[in-house]
Amino acid sequence: MVPPTSLSDYRTQKYSFGVARDLDLDPIRLSASRDNLDAVINSAYRQVFGGIGLFEVDHVSVAESQLRQGNLTVKGFVEALGQSSTYERLFLSSTSPHRFVELNYKHFLGRPPASEAEVSTHVKLLREQGYAAEISSYVNSDEYQAAFGDDTVPYLRSINSLAGFAQDTFNKTFRLRGGAAASDFSMGRSSRTIAELLGYPNYAIPLPSQGRPLAKLSNFARVTKGPQSVPINSSPYGGFGVGERVQPRYMRQASDNAMDKAVLLRQLYRHVMGNPHLMETERPDALESQFLSGRLSVREFVRGLCKTPLYRSRFFETMAPYRFVEVNYKHILGRSPENQAEMGAQLDRVITAGYDAAIDWLVDSDEYSNAFGDDVVPYLRGVSSGDGRSQVNFNRTLTLVPGYAGSDSIGSDSSTVNTVAGASSLAIATRSTASSGSVDAPGKRFRIVVGGQRAGSRRRLATTTYVVSGDNITSQLAFIHRDSGRILSVTEIT
C-alpha cells in the first residue's frame, strides 16, 4: 500500500476501500437519556447484518420492543439479532462454514479472524453445540465486553491497528469490507480471508469500483489466490498440473452427508488410483459400501483400494518394479521415494513378504499416521518442502505428476530411477496445460462418443469412445471426421 503523506491522504485511502467514516471512529453508544435509541437500533441492524437492507418482516421486533422498553441491553439486542432466523438464513444457510465464521467475527467483534485456529474452533463449536452457542460465544466473550460493553453497538474497529494482533489484520479487514455500497450477502458465499489464514503471502488488496482509485494498487485488481479460487496470474506450479503449492485437504467427519461422502470417494479414487478414468464396473462395490456405511475409515479404504485386482493390474503387473514402488509412495505417502534405500526396502518387502505386505508397510507406517491419520485423504505432500526430506524430493515428486489430463497408469517405466540411483537432478518437463494452473481449456479432459466409425477394418462399430485432453481435442476431432465418424456427444470428464 502507498504510505499516506498526510492525514487527508490517509482518510482518502480509507474512503477508496469503502470505509465511510473518518480516521477516528465514533462508536454509537446508548445515552443515559436514551434519546438516541433509533440511531442505536439502526446502527445495530447495519452492523450485525452487514449492510443488508432488510424488509420490515425480517426485523426482530420482539427484541427491538424489549430494548425500547428498557428490558434489554444493547449487547442483548445484538445477540438477539445474531440468533434470529433472518441472520441464520442469510449467513449460515447461504455461505460456507469458513465464510460464516469470518462474518461473525466482523459483525460481533469488529475484526477478522486472527488465525485458522480461531476459525476451526468456532466451526467445531457450531457442529458440536449448535447455532445459538456459536453466536453467544462472540457476544458473551471477554473481548466483546472489553471492546463494547453493554451499551455500545459493535463497529469495525480493526481498520486501525489493534494491540495484540498481527499487522495483516488490516489487510484482512478490507477483504471483508467490500465497499460503501456493498453488503456482506452480496459478496459471495466463499471465504475472503482464507488465503492469509492458511499462510499465503499478504497480497495487495483489490480496490472496490467506487471511490478514488490508488494508482499504485490498480495493477493488482485481478489478483486472486487461495484454495477457493483459481489463480489468474501464472503460477510456477500450474505447468506441472498441481495448481498451487498448498494442496487441498479432504477429511472425513462424523457429520458428513451423502454429498460429502461422494466428494471423499471421488478424491480417494483420483489420488490413490492416479487420476484414472474408471468405468462403473471397475469400481470395488463392496469396498465402497463399507466406506459409505462407516465401517471403513479413510485409511482402511486406501489400504483396501491398493489391494484390489484393479490397482494391482494397473500398477504392479504391467509396470517395471521401480515404477511400481514410486507410484506406491506417491499414492500412499504423497511424495516420491527419498533415496535408493527406500526403493530397495519396498522391493525387498514385495519379494520376501508379498504384495499385500508391501502395501501394509506404507499404510501402517509412522509417516502415514503423522501425515494423514485415519480420516484425511492422502494428498501430494511432496510439492512442498517437508521436515526430514531433501530438496531434490520436490523435483522428483513433480516428475511423478502427469498433469491435469494425465494418468499414472499411462507409463510403465520409472520416472525417478535415474535421480534416485544417484544421477544428477534432471530438469522437470512441464505439462501441456494451462499456464495459469487452472483446469480450464487444455487442462480438462473430454469424452467423445462417435457413431459409425471404422475400427481398422471394413466393419463399422455402433459407437466408439475416446478420452482426450483439451489440448488434443482439435486433432482428435479432425481424425474422426477424416474417418467418416459421426460425433454423438462431447462431454467434459469432471
Structure description:
The chain is mainly α and 494 residues long. Strands 2-1-3 form a 3-stranded antiparallel β-sheet, covered by helices on one side. α4 runs antiparallel to α8. The protein is elongated, with a radius of gyration of 28 Å.
Short description:
The chain has 494 residues and is mostly helical.
Low-confidence stretches: 1-24, 200-240, 421-441, 455-460
Radius of gyration: 28 Å
Q: Would you tell me the structural class of the helices and strands? A: mainly alpha
Report the strand count. Answer: 3
Average pLDDT, all residues: 74
The H-and-E topology, N to C, reads as: HHHHHHHHHHHHHHHHHHHHHEEHE
How many angstroms separate the termini?
A: 40 Å
Shape: elongated
Strand content: under 5%
For the sheet with most strands, the description reads: 3 strands, antiparallel
Helix content: 40-55%
Total of DSSP H or I helical runs spanning 4+ residues = 22
> In which order are the strands of the major sheet placed?
2-1-3
